[in-house]
Amino acid sequence: MNYVFGPVLSRRLGQSLGVDPIPQKTCNWNCVYCQLGRTTPITDRVEEYYPREAIVVEVEEAVRTHGRSKIDWVTFVGSGEPTLHSGIGWMIREVKERTGLPVAVITNGSLLYIPEVRRALLPAGVVLPSLDAGSEALFRKINRPHPEFTFERLVDGLVSFSGEYDGRLWIEVVLISGLNDSEEALRDLAEVISRIGPDQVHLNLPTRPPAESWVEPAPEEGIVRARSILGDVAHVFHGVEGTHELSGFDDVVEAILDIIGRHPMSEKELTAVLEAWFPGEVEDALTDLAASGRAHVVERYGDRFWSGSDQTYSDTPADN
Ligand code: SF4
């Protein structure tokens, strides 16, 4: 499969079939916590990155292979920002119509200021935009957007979308120690969130390797502060998301590359997932992948994370 992965068991979406409609790390932001590494180069080009029909046909095939009853959501998630694909609205509608399954969209929300993009997402059953800051300065520090984007434009887009959308709107906040977990930052964020009026706010921590090595997850007191300032709309969701369905893979190397090419994973978690499908083969496969340069290890929080070779982190030698 080129554009579809999983289903992956997700705490929020149950069995989620992922759709990745754009090439690796195509994004208009360069978040300090991005688990896919730094955005190089940052882009705001909206285009048909991969053919829309081919993507939807692959979703249909995956649904047939795994069985419709085994999938709760088809989730457009992307190795970057999925709304940069010009066919996002068409794909959402076609996936719903051809599979009968509900669609979720995980987005940074940056393009919601554009009326056509808001209209494109209306048929989705749930939309999960990011909002990590309540001020322009902090937005620039955390999300490091393409120069064309302003915080005001981001918030205006979210407020407009919330007013037009009938589905579930779940805002995702990544809490970073010393950046957006202070009382002042959280009060700013609470003010903006109250203008948007989402159904839920999901508090997350950067648990996979962040692009910048200095990024640390907010400590427990920061999470408690966020819960108390943001109120009952906020729910804590942190830790790494669930297991992978790997029945379509005959080869352990291909299975590893498919997983870590989309989401870096700690060695412990990766080994646990893979041993269930390829007992006794995992350690040698990882050693071979590292030796061949097709995968590499990023160390964070005292843990080893495996990532695809084309992902760049602040401590990747060539980028220091
Ligand atoms: S976290 Fe999402 S929005 Fe931020 S740089 Fe990574 S892909 Fe883009």
Question: What does this entry look like structurally?
Answer:
This protein has 320 residues and is of the alpha/beta class. It has 2 domains: 4-236, Aldolase class I (TIM Barrel, Alpha-Beta Barrel), CATH 3.20.20; 252-319, Arc Repressor Mutant, subunit A, CATH 1.10.10.10. 35% of the residues lie in helices and 17% in strands. Helix 3 (115-121) links the parallel strand 4 and strand 5 (126-129). The two termini are 34 Å apart. The mean pLDDT is 90. Bound molecules: iron/sulfur cluster. Iron/sulfur cluster is lined by residues 27, 29-31, 34, 36, 39, 80-81, 108.
Query: What is the string of helix and strand elements?
Result: EEHEHEHEHHEHEHEHEHHEE
Radius of gyration: 19 Å
* Spatial sequence of strands, sheet with the most strands: 1-2-3-4-5-6-7-8
Q: What is the highest CATH level, the class of the largest domain?
A: Alpha Beta
Q: What structural category do the secondary elements indicate?
A: alpha/beta
Q: Which spans of ≥5 residues are poorly predicted at pLDDT below 50?
A: none
Q: Write down the overall geometry.
A: globular
The strand count comes to: 11
**How much helix is in the residues?**
25-40%
Distance between the termini: 34 Å
Looking at CATH, which topology of the largest domain would you report? TIM Barrel
The domain count comes to 2
Task: Describe what is shown at a glance.
The chain has helices at residues 52-66, 88-99, 115-121, 136-143, 151-164, 183-196, 220-230, 252-262, 267-275, 282-292, and strands spanning 4-10, 14-19, 73-76, 103-107, 126-129, 168-174, 200-204, 234-236, 265-266, 295-300, 303-308. By secondary structure, the chain is an alpha/beta fold.
